[in-house]
Amino acid sequence: MKSYEVNFDGLVGPTHNYGGLSYGNVASQSNSQQSSNPKEAALQGLAKMKALMEMGFQQGVLAPQERPDVAALRRLGFAGSDAQVIERAAKDAMPLLVASCSASSMWVANAATVSPSADTADGRVHFTAANLNCKYHRSIEHPTTSRVLGAMFADQQHFAHHAALPAVAQFGDEGAANHTRFCRDYGQAGVEFFVFGRSAFDTRYPAPQKYPARQTLEASQAVARLHGLSDDGVVYAQQNPSVIDQGVFHNDVIAVGNGEVLFYHEDAFLETDKMLAELDAKLGKRGGNFQSICVPRSQVTVEDAVRSYLFNSQLLSRADGSMLLIVPEECRGNERVWQYLQGLTSSGGLIREVKVFDLKQSMQNGGGPACLRLRVALNQTELAAVNPGVIMTAPLYGTLTQWVDKHYRDRLSENDLADPQLLLECRTALDELTQILKLGAVYPFQIN
Question: Where do the annotations place substrate binding (predicted)?
């Protein structure tokens, strides 16, 4: 039976703004308080989805969150009508209002960790929504994320959903941004690669000194247990604390993998040789031929990688066995990174082509091509069981672009977030979106 890796891209929400909320994310902080363009951001993301669909890749879409999150503000003591809650938060605690308006759910690489049926004990595809406990503005996402994923992957015969891990620092979980799967074929048993920044309980593991390590070893181990993964199908690796302190807040800022290939920076991990040997041995037992591409620091520095988001790319397998790398425009704008990529693709190696996309609106807020997509490996039967409303087609692309043009603003500043009308605009848009994507009632305003 044929199997696929389906990329479900996050649809940028109507409140896309540069709140500078993510300490440790250089781009997020450096562009704080600038005016954003939600309409352009959403259309840029949709253009990437359409392009990959037209290249023959399976492509889906994942709906955004309801923002502003008025319910979250009520839990923090703001009362009255929805409009009064927003007005009082703007007056008394503007940072909380900004956090409640964050559209960072568009980076669905953080939405969940996904294990395909070929790896799990019960033969179902497993989803665990990420608690995103490190940042308040993201920690409020997982209840809606769980409902949306449940509406997309509803057939319990094929799909299993787990609640987010306990919302405490010891189980900080950032989803697939720190998870990669290696396999010979998407439908065959593979090796799941969990990268963590620190251990919550074992002091033998070093920790970064400047920026927080968001993913814990204990969270990764818990997800593997929930998904029923076997020990011989899992590898755990620690991210290099020094690169976290240079702005590598997730592994997908310094490495990307797909199929049998890991593309990574020389400074990405601790105990790299040991890790590579374990991946090679475990994938070999499952019929795979593990291969790695190391980008040397002498050609691309960690700073170059962070500024260009070279590794926050999509590594895609093509029918002829070669690989395509999807990178943001910022890679072409960095002389050293672009020179490296030109040499990489001309060498006749595994990665034969690089395609560049303009994702400036997302990039300025700290997320590139890899951040915008959640990968789900599915066989034909499982793909047929997915809610068809979320699978990208030419008609759906046309409908969604019209929907964005109708509902999104082309400029949003921090002051605009205090406008109660923005909440009404967002709810109107999302109510229509759930009908377009056939999701049913997934947002709090539709349920309560």
Answer: 19-28, 110, 137-138, 214, 252, 365
Tokens of 399: 């409908």
Find, among 25, 14, 28, 446, the residue nearest to 252 by Cα: 25
How far is 404 from 385, CA to CA, in rounded Å? 28
Q: What is the distance between the alpha carbons of residues 241 and 252, in angstroms, rounded to a whole number?
A: 15
Locate 259 and state its tokens.
């199929």
The stretch 46-62 carries a mean pLDDT of: 97
How far apart CA 69 and CA 13 sit, in angstroms, is 13
Beta bridge partners of 315: 325
State the catalytic residue, choosing from 134, 183, 371, 426.
Answer: 371
- Largest Cα span, the chain: 64
Pairing of the two strands 179-182 and 255-258: unpaired
Listed by start position, the domains of the chain span: 3-67+102-447
Catalytic residue list contains 371: yes
250 annotated active-site: yes
Judge whether 394 is annotated as a binding position: no
- Pick from 1, 36, 6: which is nearest to 19 by CA? 36
Q: What is the pTM assigned to this prediction?
A: 0.95
Q: Where are the beta strands (DSSP E) in 242-322?
A: 255-258, 261-265, 291-295, 314-317
Q: Residue 408 corresponds to which tokens in the numbers above?
A: 């999104």
Q: Is 31 labelled as part of a ligand binding site?
A: no
User: For residue 310, which amino acid is it?
Assistant: L
The fraction of the chain above a pLDDT of 70, given in percent, is 97
pLDDT-based confidence at residue 29 (cuts at 50, 70, 90) = very low
Residue 233 has which token pair?
């199908």
Q: What is the mean pLDDT of the chain?
A: 94
Cβ-based neighbours of 421, under 8 Å, separated by 6 or more:
none
Buried b (16+ CB within 10 A) or exposed e, 350-385: bbbebbbbebebbbbbbbbbbbbbbbbbbbeebbeb
350 annotated as a binding-site residue: no
Q: Write down the residue that tokens 């994310």 correspond to.
A: 25
Domain spanning 3-67+102-447: which superfamily? Succinylarginine dihydrolase (3.75.10.20)
